[in-house]
Amino acid sequence: MGHLVTSVAPLPLQGGGLGRFIDPFVQFLTDITNLEPVLLQLLAFGLLLGGVYALTALGLTMIFGVMDVINFAHGVFLVVGMYSVWLVSEMAGISPFLGIPIAAAVLFVLGVVVHVLTVEPIIEAPQQNQLIATLGVLFIIQSAIEIVFTPDPQQVELSLGSIQVGGVFIPLGQFYALVIALGTMLAVRAFLNRTDLGRKIRGTADNRDGARYVGINVRRINYLTFGIGAALAGVAGGSIALFQRFDPFTGETYLINAFVIVILGGLGSFPGAFVGGLIVGMIQVFGGYYLPGTTAQVLIFLLFIGTLLVKPEGLFGGAEA
Amino acid sequence: MGKTLKSSTSNRRRFLKATGASVAALTLAGCASDDAGNGGGDSGGDSGGDSGGSGGDTGTTTGTPEQSVDEVIIGSNHPLSGSLAATGVGMSNAIKLAAMRKNEEGGIESLDGAEVTVIEGDNQGAQELGGQVSEELLSEGAHVLTGCYSSPVTTAATQVAERQGVPFVISIAAADNILQGRDFNYVYRPQPPARRLASDYADLVPSVIRDGGGTIDTAGLFYINNSYGQAIRDSLREFLPEQNVEIVEETAIEFGASNANTQVSRLRSADPDTIIATTYVAGGVLLAQALQDQDYRPPYLTASASATFTDDDAVSDIGEFANGVLDNNYALNPTVDKTAEVRSQFLDNYDQEFSASVGMAYTAAEVIIQAVEEAGSVEPDDINEALKGLSYEDHISAMGAIEFDDQGENVNALGPVNQVQDLSVKVVYPEEYAEADPQV
Amino acid sequence: MSAIETVRDRYRTFDDQRYAPLVKGVALFGLLAALPTIIEIDVAGMELAALLSLKVLILTVIYAYTAQAWNIMSGYTGQFSFGHAAFFGIGAYATQALVVDAAVNPWIGMLVGGVLAGGYGLIIGALSFRFKLQGHYFALATLAFAELLRFVVTNMSELRGANGYFKAFPRDYGAEYGLVAFQFQNDLPYYYLIVGFLLVVTLVSWLIKNSWVGLYFFAIREDERAAASVGVPSFRYKLIGVAVSAFFTALGGAYWSMYFNTIRPDTVFALFKNVELLLPAVVGGPGTLLGPIVGSFIVTPVSEIARTTFSDINGLDRIIYGAFLVAIVIYSPRGVVSWPSQARALWERVRGDEEVNE
């Protein structure tokens, strides 16, 4: 397939000058006009990364959208999902793919327990209290994992390799995660749109007080939502375990990105989470390619702030759950 | 031996564990340390004077425990929990192992067989706990300190030692500024710091490749975007051109990133003669994965100060693809028998990997023990004098005799070249430490 | 009248006096000043120092200080900031960059940092308030502004990137160890210095609280629309809150950088720094003058006691600490400082019942 030698991103040369801010964009435009093949590759990577990010944001956006709770423990829920898949495949010798539904089940139970013990008592309290309560949960679960499984990194024994399609490399682990993300998104959407319970959850998301008036048991909706949100984190964590080593602290980076995605896409919106994930993934991939260091992350936060200011309801407006 | 706990008097907080070291030492060592223990109890009584007292002007330390010198206490200040703990626990264990081995040999000879005890404090990798844990260890009676893996934590921890006039031998802390220009009088570092590692890379790796008939004119850097990665990057920028290696690409990975696809695309586009990786274990694994996924490998895959390609577990996780990687990092000396012995003892006792970092901590502990041996005293100032004049050869690190300059840096510190051959990490250069020939 | 009631009535009479806040303040800060001595008093072979060393005291007062500064904005005006690490880091970086790269005295650097942070606060505030961000959205926006700085600094070689700064020696900027140099050779002066910082910010906080500014702040917190309808210029006053809070938080960052010798983007701009800075205020009681101080004297020592007590299993202390955080927000959502009045209410209810029974 020949090396893609033609496009050489400019060196992030030390020292100042406006050039370092402008040159990457010039380079980017040049590559576009030249139809550099590397762009296609980057597009694929952006799609794959975005899919994983979207998956990590689904549970968060659900809990945020329906209950108006910022769940800081979401990152460590992902980690519990990773360890679940790992345990299942290492100890029981079951395929890690089958471990993913098990991870979802584990997380559903954990989510309900966490909700009943910590979130429910303060669901009406000032928001900072929920934030600190879920932070406490984060510390508890993270350290528990550290004590039980040691802080050493773990890895699911699975080398999936990659395939090549038209000169574009597709790492299979991430590809499967993308497929799972899409499948999960469609399944949860169908659940929310087609089932009675799903409609009640959406109704609660739209208007909590109204939901109460029409006789919806908001309490029950709350713990189901938290459970499902956690289960989604289980699916996400389990999928990540297919291609990434992890330790008890892996969740933090994903957590921050998930927050960004939730806001970008709009609270409670699943398609929004998907688009938000793609945006973050694309910026990281293209930014990582053209910009020096990890400057892409700066762009992501600028975009995040911009969205908050101009369109806080997100790209998908929270119109649908 | 109850002595271990005796010094951590019951009214004091029990933040640290009297470690298993001395207990385990007893069961393993048999009569040698028994004799030492009996003899040391009385005869060594006054040689050390009021050991803990001389440094203890903090005010928080009251009542120095009345110790005769039948025990030398090393305070180990490492991250035992939190995200650095995976390595920190191993390092602290290595220090305990060094103590245990010394006790098996009969303890500190010059102190009539005084036993070496290690007390541990968990700094959780937090800057604000570095100094605190140092003080706690000192108030527990530590005669000399070691730590801390994370550089900001080490800065805080060494500050306390310096103020109290107690020697501190750094186990690992890569930032150059910890010692350089700090005017410290009590702080020492056997390990090569970041700048030294990068300069060793430039001095050694290109010549290994060229001697083997290879060409290395261009390099692409792949580094973790934190202080450690940037410090190595900056030094490589400085030293590589001197060896006629041009850096044609630099790409960074964020801590906790999920893959290195983009970075590899970029390196692939630049297609340098070598990729130089500077990462923690995870980053190097991601690099190898992404390289394979994109079916790319530069003529020479190398690393500078990377934790990945000196870690047997990581190498076996990566598999075949890791073979041939040249890496320069501090390393264990394979040419002495002691290394294998220590390694197997470590595995038996702690069921952990004896990685380069863990080995470096082991060497730091031996430096301390040797200094105490030469000082014949547990007085901090005596140990400090011994450290200043130390020339310690009988260690297991692949470097010359450990000797400290005015700043406290080891003048013979070295980051030799390793190569992954048949999925095991082998030192290949310089020749005096090589266990195998480099395969270029 | 029982003895307790006598005491209580006397206290109420005292409380009504105009000099009461002064007396209370003097008592509180007198206690803080005496703490380093108190912790060393030996009671039956037990020293408090065994639980609270001077270093832990310093850390406690640092967080009391930052929480007090946070409180001026978030406690009083109700705009919950989750990004105060931005201001903290700006203070630390301005101080160190100026002292190391330009040999500027750290006190000056600190004030520069305060002004820069105030400016950054104004930008954050102006944008967020103009676009009417509230609740979670405002909290996340402030967090984003803080994280933004972390990545900017990490990638900026002009600010030494991820390597950060190592504090210079006093001689490097023409000073000797001491107050002028902002550097001391032992911890005790550092302790008194941060107590002084806390005194200043508490005084400012008290002045605000007892002025029309504070009145406006509380009006905004309780019901912004109602406040605006009676003519409170809420936009401007929220900005004042942010700027003052940011300024003082930056001073805390400057202190941190001088006390801990070295700063990096991943220490002073750390994600969890945002939490640490505000936690005491939430635990103690947001919007109160005493809350941040009391809260810090609970949060930091609890974490310290958990660490030293449960050290046999590495990491267990974090579980205890996490459980403590959960418990405190569930059982005391209005903060610890509300306990006395709650206890009084309970007491009066009990007594009331008794009277009825009689």
UniProtKB/TrEMBL annotation, chain A:
GO terms for cellular component: plasma membrane. The chain crosses the membrane at residues 38-62, 69-88, 94-119, 131-149, 169-192, 221-243, 255-282, 289-310. InterPro entries: ABC_transp_permease, BCAA_transport_permease. Pfam families: BPD_transp_2 (PF02653). It comes from the Archaea. Keywords: Amino-acid transport, Cell membrane, Membrane, Transmembrane, Transmembrane helix, Transport. This is Branched-chain amino acid ABC transporter permease.
TrEMBL record, chain B:
Residues 72-408 form the Leucine-binding protein domain. Residues 32-66 are annotated as: Disordered. This is ABC transporter substrate-binding protein. It holds the Pfam family Peripla_BP_6. Keywords: Plasmid, Signal. The lineage of its organism: Archaea, Methanobacteriati, Methanobacteriota, Stenosarchaea group, Halobacteria. It comes from Haloferax gibbonsii. Residues 37-58 have a biased composition (Gly residues). CDD domains: PBP1_ABC_ligand_binding-like. InterPro entries: BCAA_transport (IPR051010), Leu-bd (IPR028081), Peripla_BP_I (IPR028082), TAT_signal (IPR006311), TAT_signal_bac_arc (IPR019546).
TrEMBL record, chain C:
GO terms for cellular component: plasma membrane. It holds the Pfam family BPD_transp_2. Its main location: membrane. It is a multi-pass membrane protein. GO terms for molecular function: branched-chain amino acid transmembrane transporter activity. It comes from the Archaea. The chain crosses the membrane at residues 21-39, 45-65, 77-95, 107-129, 190-218, 239-257, 277-299, 319-337. InterPro entries: ABC_transp_permease (IPR001851), LivM-like (IPR043428). It is found in: Cell membrane. Keywords: Cell membrane, Membrane, Transmembrane, Transmembrane helix. The keyword Transmembrane applies. PANTHER family: HIGH-AFFINITY BRANCHED-CHAIN AMINO ACID TRANSPORT PROTEIN BRAE (PTHR30482:SF10), HIGH-AFFINITY BRANCHED-CHAIN AMINO ACID TRANSPORT SYSTEM PERMEASE (PTHR30482). This is Branched-chain amino acid ABC transporter permease. It comes from Haloferax gibbonsii (strain ATCC 33959 / DSM 4427 / JCM 8863 / NBRC 102184 / NCIMB 2188 / Ma 2.38).
